[in-house]
Design a protein that fits this description.
Blueprint (H helix, E strand, L loop, with lengths): L2 H13 L9 H8 L3 H7 L3 H13 L7 H6 L1 H11 L2 H8 L3 H26 L9 H18 L7 H12 L9
Helix pairs in contact: 1-2, 1-4, 4-8, 6-10, 8-9, 9-10
Length: about 180
């Protein structure tokens, strides 16, 4: 059985009312009708499978240029999520703290890694004393802080992009401003 088929079976469990924390490797294997050795041939544990699946779900997001993603993070992510199966996973797991934290933390780490690479490849104005990873973490955390802050407000995505750029625009390479 392929990695993608194992992920699809796990994804189906995750979006049909099963909380991440309640799904076991045994349950995944039973759903798929495979022996646990087939699972462990591809994955160390269900977290590694979950991260693999998130990478698949985020693949198209990371095809968008980093300059665009860091210039308009809210507008672009909203557009991405409306067409992505990731939104189904987020919605299905929103009442499972463990699943929600895993989605958030995995997405953040991938965005930070990507942001660091983007800054290294495109920055000409950053002070040499600042670490690229620190700046990337600041950019990404600001996105998540604004997201949490606006949950009960009625701002347009373009307005959130504007707030974001006011807070961290000076950290972005010139091409993104």
């Amino acid at each position: 059985m392929s990695k993608n088929l194992i992920w699809q079976g796990f994804y189906d469990l995750l979006i049909t009312g099963n909380k991440y924390k309640e799904i076991s490797v045994r349950g995944i294997c039973q759903k798929l009708g495979i022996h646990h050795t087939s699972f462990y041939y591809h994955f160390q544990d269900k977290q590694q499978l979950f991260e693999y699946g998130l990478d698949l779900l985020l693949k198209d997001y990371f095809k968008i240029t980093a300059a665009d993603r860091f210039k308009s993070p809210f507008t672009l992510s909203d557009s991405f999520y409306q067409k992505s199966s990731l939104i189904n996973l987020i919605e299905a797991q929103k009442y499972d703290i463990e699943g929600t934290l895993l989605i958030t933390n995995c997405a953040k780490e991938r965005m930070i890694h990507d942001g660091k690479r983007y800054l290294i490849n495109n920055s000409d104005k950053l002070a040499v004393s600042l670490e690229y990873e620190l700046i990337a973490r600041q950019l990404v955390e600001t996105i998540f802080v604004i997201s949490r802050w606006q949950e009960d407000k009625k701002y347009q995505m373009s307005e959130l992009d504007h707030f974001y750029l006011l807070l961290v625009g000076h950290l972005l390479p010139c091409e993104a401003n």
